[in-house]
Each structure stands twice: as structure tokens, then as C-alpha cells.
């Protein structure tokens, strides 16, 4: 039976991550807590709005209401990467070769590892940012679609149009697909080779959490009484295919999903604080945590694939050891 080490905090947990094997919990007030031979913490911002981790999960990049973009790494090392004055940092993303991107209003800024920056201004506010897994390319979620930029060159931006407000964005691990979450209860995707659309609808709630499986063949999502897991095994993604529905609970809603680092398993968090793990192949479930005080808003696996750090909107956080 999995064991849970609780960490009761005050406030909304935005992100969790393991840095150097140590679980970290980033809260909306701008304080990052960690369980490292006891409870310790570091104040990064006066109000935290957005977070992202790099591919190696060696640091957590954060953006705040104080106009600062910072990064916290293992051993509690903190670096200030950018300052935007009085503007709120509404979205951040971590990219290849030490690059990051951050958004303030209608502008997305890329900061390269050498400290140089480049701005990309849009007609409407930038809602979400994501880097492609290969090459220096990043995507912006915006009103009526998404835009792809190539910050290291003078390449012309690529506009991907679809009516409505797009709020989150993610590339498939192979870089072949781009998927956005929308203000309406839906996901929308594009096959990047030809711009073909992929409509993923039928959610009773907004999708606030998305997670790709280890090999990128599945995209798990929240927004329903089950984790909705779309197949991306064919050349046209999920079109014409039904998604898996894992961990169905008729009286609860899935609020957070986190796919296992190497196996086709997903951790599923619900609005009552319960967490389970479900296997794609046969939908087998394992209870990881009983209901708590608030909806699960963040989960992250460790590099050893044995622990999950979780946090909720009510601040009841902790670490699950799935080996017991």
C-alpha cells in the first residue's frame, strides 16, 4: 500500500517538482516550500502566477505579480532571470539550451542562455507558452488560435487559427502535434506538418491539466469525472478515435493528471483531494491517497519513479511513496 508523508501549508499550490531528489511545493503567495530533512522554504515572489520546469527538471522557473522571472534549483539556489517592472508575469516556459520564455500582457519574451532577449508582440494577450521538444521554436496560446515563433532566426511566425480563447498550450514529445486548452470545455490540436485540425470536445468542465505519456502516444487531460486520455499513435492523432476514460468517479471531477515518466500509467487527482494511479492497457486502478481538504492542483513524479509530490488548492500537500 502506498504511504503518504503530508505537508500542510496555507494557500493554493501551483506546482510541485523534485529538485535534486527533494520535493518542492510552489504556492500562489510566492513561497516555495520543500521537504529536506524537515520543512524549509524560500520566498521567490510577492505573488506567484506561473511556473515551468526544464526538460532535465534541474530547476523550476517561476513568474510573479512582482514582475520578476526567477529560477530555483537544487540546493535552494535562486537566480533572477528577468524583470518586467510593474507588469505581471502571466506565463513562463523553459526551453532548450537554457532558454526561457515569459509573457506580460500582449508580449512574449524569449531570454537566451547568454542573457539576450527578444520580444514578440501579439494583437491580444498571451495566455500560454510552450517550447517545441526539438529546435528553437516556441508556441503562444492566444485568442483565436496559436502562433509559432522561431526566436533564433528571422523566420516568419506561423499562425494556427481556431475561433475562441486558447489558454494553455503543449507540444507532443515528437514535435508533430500542438494542442491547446480552451476557455470553452474543449481541447484543440493541429498536426504541424499540414495544419490539419483536431477537435477534442465533450468535456463537462474546463481542461486545466494536460500530461503526455512517456513515449508521447497518449495525452491525458482533466475536465471530466474521469481522466480523458487521447490516442496519438497514428499519423492523424486522435481523429476518428475514442479516448480512454480512466479512473471514472461519478461524484467527482478530475482536476490534475501526471503521466508516469516511463510507463503507460497516469496519476489522477480529483476535486475532493483523492489521487489514484491507472494503467492505460487495462484501466487497473490503485488508490494512492484518500480524499483531503481541496482539489488536487499539482503533481510530479520523481526521477526514480517511486514518489509523487502533490499539492492542492487548499494547501494540503505531501509526498506519496508508491513502493510503500
UniProtKB/TrEMBL annotation:
Domain Anaphase-promoting complex subunit 4-like WD40, first and last residues per copy: 261-322
SMART domains from the UniProt entry: WD40
SUPFAM superfamilies on file: Quinoprotein alcohol dehydrogenase-like
Pfam families xrefs: ANAPC4_WD40
Transmembrane stretches, start-end: none
Presence of the UniProt keyword Heme in the record: no
Protein name: WD40 repeat domain-containing protein
Species the sequence originates in: Mesorhizobium zhangyense
Amino acid at each position: 500500500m502506498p504511504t503518504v508523508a503530508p505537508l500542510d501549508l496555507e494557500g493554493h499550490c501551483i506546482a510541485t517538482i523534485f529538485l535534486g531528489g527533494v520535493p518542492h511545493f510552489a504556492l500562489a503567495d510566492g513561497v516555495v516550500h520543500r521537504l529536506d530533512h524537515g520543512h524549509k522554504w524560500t520566498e521567490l515572489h510577492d505573488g506567484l502566477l506561473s511556473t515551468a520546469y526544464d526538460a532535465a527538471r534541474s530547476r523550476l522557473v517561476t513568474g510573479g505579480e512582482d514582475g520578476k522571472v526567477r529560477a530555483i534549483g537544487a540546493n535552494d539556489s535562486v537566480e533572477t532571470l528577468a524583470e518586467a517592472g510593474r507588469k505581471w508575469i502571466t506565463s513562463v516556459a523553459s526551453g532548450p539550451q537554457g532558454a526561457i520564455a515569459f509573457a506580460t500582457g500582449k508580449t512574449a519574451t524569449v531570454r537566451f542562455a547568454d542573457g539576450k532577449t527578444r520580444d514578440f508582440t501579439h494583437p491580444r494577450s498571451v495566455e500560454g507558452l510552450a517550447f517545441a521538444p526539438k529546435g528553437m521554436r516556441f508556441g503562444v496560446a492566444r485568442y483565436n488560435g496559436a502562433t509559432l515563433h522561431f526566436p533564433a532566426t528571422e523566420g516568419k511566425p506561423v499562425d494556427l487559427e481556431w475561433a475562441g480563447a486558447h489558454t494553455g498550450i503543449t507540444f507532443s514529445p515528437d514535435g508533430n502535434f500542438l494542442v491547446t486548452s480552451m476557455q470553452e470545455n474543449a481541447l484543440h490540436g493541429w498536426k504541424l506538418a499540414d495544419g490539419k485540425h483536431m477537435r477534442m470536445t465533450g468535456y463537462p468542465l474546463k481542461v486545466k491539466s494536460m500530461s503526455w505519456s512517456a513515449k508521447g502516444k497518449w495525452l491525458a487531460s482533466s475536465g471530466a469525472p474521469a481522466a480523458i486520455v487521447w490516442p496519438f499513435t497514428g499519423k492523424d492523432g486522435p481523429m476518428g478515435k475514442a479516448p480512454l476514460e480512466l479512473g471514472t468517479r461519478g461524484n467527482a471531477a478530475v482536476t490534475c493528471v501526471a503521466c508516469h515518466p516511463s510507463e503507460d500509467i497516469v496519476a489522477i487527482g480529483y476535486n475532493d483531494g483523492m489521487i489514484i494511479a491507472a494503467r492505460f492497457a487495462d484501466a487497473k486502478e490503485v488508490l494512492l491517497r484518500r480524499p483531503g481538504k481541496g482539489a488536487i492542483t499539482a503533481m510530479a513524479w520523481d526521477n526514480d519513479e517511486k514518489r509523487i509530490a502533490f499539492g492542492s488548492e487548499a494547501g494540503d500537500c505531501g509526498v506519496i511513496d508508491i513502493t510503500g
